[in-house]
Design goal:
Dihydrodipicolinate Reductase, domain 2; 6-stranded parallel beta sheet
Length: about 325
């Protein structure tokens, strides 16, 4: 098995706490280089995780010809610019969600990938989970009849006003940070885009949405609700429920959860609970992009899907008055 030499562009919390540990588990990943705005932080990550090289500044890492793929965990407003730079440098890119603040920016990123014959994939790690695959299989096989309503939510505690996720210029707010999970789950399970989108939001004094509720309306009177929020005093809430003409599915599935995950299918007065053992989702996404590079697989989170999520996010934010 060929190992892909990875570089990490930035020292964000999600890289340290989630993705880099997943990369260490990935069998086809070589932790080659890490870059930070300050050399001190990059050297700290090098020592902590076992990278071979540390760079001060992102351009320095992109100039290294040994780097094959780059993971980008930078703030939302930096995703598009640094992804394009990496793609133009001939690097494959795994970029954190949301891929871009608008569909137009996402299209520019994929154009750069195509022009330079490299892969770009949005880092929806949870979509690589066998649990999500199992839920989609249940729905596609008619386990609950025809889907009538999907409910998906991701709510966490309120962040300080100084947090980068609370700053409008950095494309902060609940919809960008959390709502992309609820929306992407719905779009993944439905396999298509809604006909209409309605949304309401509660905004901070700084102009970012603290809570947003969206209603996605599909053909044949199918509806889905996507809720997200940063609520004071709340730890975390992940919610998932599917209702169909012949039954329903509910699960305590948390986004990016690994280990044992259960969901229950209720139909005809009977309930059947199924349990799966799920590996680290971040490991799975890194391994999958690695196989794309080495073996010619197609990215699991496709260009078409990421553009669909970006379009629907645009519509939600416009409807909510962001």
């Amino acid at each position: 098995m060929r190992k892909i030499r990875w570089g990490v562009l930035g020292t964000a919390d999600i890289a340290r706490g989630q993705t880099i540990p997943g990369m260490k588990l990935a069998q086809n990943c070589e932790l080659y280089a890490v870059a930070g705005r300050r050399m001190e932080k990059a050297e700290q990550y090098k020592k902590e995780f076992g990278f071979q090289k540390a760079y001060e500044g992102y351009d320095a890492l992109l100039a290294d010809p040994e780097v094959e793929a780059v993971y980008i965990p930078l703030p939302n407003d930096l995703h598009a610019g640094w992804s394009v730079k990496a793609l133009q440098a001939g690097k494959h890119v795994l970029c954190e969600k949301p891929l871009a603040p608008t569909e137009a920016e996402a299209k520019r990123m994929f154009q750069a990938a195509e022009e330079n014959n490299v892969f770009l994939m949005e880092a929806f790690a949870y979509l690589h989970s066998p649990a999500v695959a199992a839920l989609k299989q249940e729905i596609d096989s008619g386990a609950v009849g025809e889907v009538r309503f999907i409910d998906s939510a991701f709510i966490t505690g309120r962040r300080p006003d100084t947090d980068i996720r609370m700053i409008r210029d950095n494309f902060g707010g609940a919809q960008y940070d959390l709502g992309c999970y609820a929306v992407s789950m719905i779009l993944w399970l439905m396999g298509r885009e809604p006909l209409d989108v309605k949304a309401v939001a509660h905004f901070s004094d700084g102009g970012v949405d603290l809570e947003t509720s969206a209603l996605l309306l599909f053909e044949n009177d199918i509806a889905a609700g996507a809720d997200c929020g940063m609520v004071p005093g709340v730890s975390r809430l992940d919610r998932f429920h599917v209702m169909g003409t012949e039954g329903e599915i509910h699960s305590a599935l948390e986004f990016n959860q690994c280990g044992e995950i259960s969901y229950t299918v209720c139909r005809g007065g009977k309930s059947v609970t199924k349990t799966l053992t799920v590996p680290n989702n971040y490991q799975l996404e890194v391994e999958q992009l690695g196989r794309c590079i080495a073996d010619g697989e197609t990215p699991h989170v496709s260009k078409e899907f990421s553009l669909r999520v970006a379009r629907v996010t645009d519509r939600i934010l416009q409807a909510a008055g962001y």
